């Protein structure tokens, strides 16, 4: 069920970009939600794991943007959902967690998966960030929401680093231009920065609004955009705010614009940020509704403009910017988990 009432409420606050439409491309071989999508060195997209009707997948497949179709590749060594995928500097893909402490590597040259060192803790709904030195920082998540650890691709081992100041799940992690990592929210209005040179966390000034299951994106000027989300009392956050690392301050750039949770964001080549899909929850009774809403944020004018809606409502999906400038929306769920894929051509 699409959240049409919510869309009508918020769209009046926006400009409009164009009448360009979202177009379907080749379907995945199976329906997926809570999967990962990662760009390979050759520009193709690796999709791994996810679930359908509470059954997790070990399967993986690759999308060719030139041909517009999917090819099955090797299966992972175990089923995974709500895991992370990180593109390493050697071209391999690191998959970690998903209600497990295991991790594995995908080699695009062979199409095979190889087990690597286990994390110190089982995790799901965590974040993973590739640092400038090639290591991967994994933060928080279910069961171990205050801990963090580092994966070293040269040794295949995980090392615990300093704990966060606060427990976090449903948070975001964004690599700043100076190589530090900004971790935001997880119900709270706090944020903190990890410094790889010291292994320590430092709190930033508080956000203006508490939020979890929000969206975040680095901007071309090095600031960080944070949008939407919800609070512990199931209140939607409809503000947009921006963090400036040079001043350590958060500034609200719009209110009453984008609401919802599981909102997906992607940075475009021209510096704008595209959002698409997500969830709305009616707490009484508890009813989930996905949306097909899409919009673009312009950091120069700090304004939003609506796009044409996606062909179907999606949440728990992935959103990818392709090398040719198109944006790909993959899988997700509305009334059912879908294998459909569509793109927006900017």
Automatic annotation (TrEMBL):
Cross-referenced InterPro entries: Gal_Oxidase_central_sf, Kelch-typ_b-propeller, Kelch_1, Quinoprotein_ADH-like_sf
Keywords assigned: Kelch repeat, Repeat, Signal
Xref: Pfam families: Kelch_1, Kelch_KLHDC2_KLHL20_DRC7
Signal peptide extent: 1-19
Protein name: Uncharacterized protein
The species this protein was found in: Adineta ricciae (Rotifer)
């Amino acid at each position: 069920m699409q959240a049409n009432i919510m869309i009508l409420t918020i769209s009046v606050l926006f400009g409009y970009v164009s009448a360009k439409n979202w177009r379907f491309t080749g379907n995945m071989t199976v329906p997926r939600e809570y999967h990962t999508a990662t760009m390979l060195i050759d520009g193709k997209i690796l999709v791994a794991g996810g679930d359908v009707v509470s059954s997790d997948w070990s399967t993986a497949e690759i999308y060719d943007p030139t041909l517009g179709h999917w090819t099955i590749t090797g299966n992972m060594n175990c089923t995974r959902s709500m895991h992370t995928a990180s593109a390493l500097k050697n071209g391999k893909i690191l998959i970690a967690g998903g209600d497990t402490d295991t991790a594995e590597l995908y080699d695009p040259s062979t199409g095979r998966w190889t087990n690597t060192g286990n994390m110190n803790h089982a995790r799901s709904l965590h974040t993973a960030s590739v640092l400038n030195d090639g290591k991967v920082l994994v933060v928080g998540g279910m069961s171990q929401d205050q801990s963090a650890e580092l994966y070293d691709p040269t040794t295949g081992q995980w090392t615990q680093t300093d704990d966060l100041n606060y427990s976090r799940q449903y948070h975001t992690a964004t690599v700043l231009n100076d190589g530090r990592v900004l971790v935001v929210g997880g119900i709270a209005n706090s944020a903190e920065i990890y410094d790889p040179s010291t292994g320590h966390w430092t709190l930033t000034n508080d956000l203006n609004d508490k939020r979890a299951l929000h969206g975040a994106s680095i901007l071309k000027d090095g600031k960080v955009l944070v949008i939407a989300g919800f609070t512990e009392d199931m209140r939607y956050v409809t503000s947009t705010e921006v963090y400036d690392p040079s001043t350590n301050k958060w500034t609200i750039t719009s209110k009453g614009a984008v609401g919802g949770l599981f909102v997906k964001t992607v940075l475009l080549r021209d510096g704008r940020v595209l959002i698409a899909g997500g969830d709305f929850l009616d707490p009484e009774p508890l009813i989930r509704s996905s949306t097909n809403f899409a919009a673009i944020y312009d950091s120069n004018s700090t304004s939003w403009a609506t796009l044409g809606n996606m062909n179907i409502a999606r949440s728990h999906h992935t959103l990818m910017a392709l090398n040719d400038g198109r944006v790909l929306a993959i899988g997700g769920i509305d009334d059912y988990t879908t294998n459909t894929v569509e793109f927006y051509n900017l």
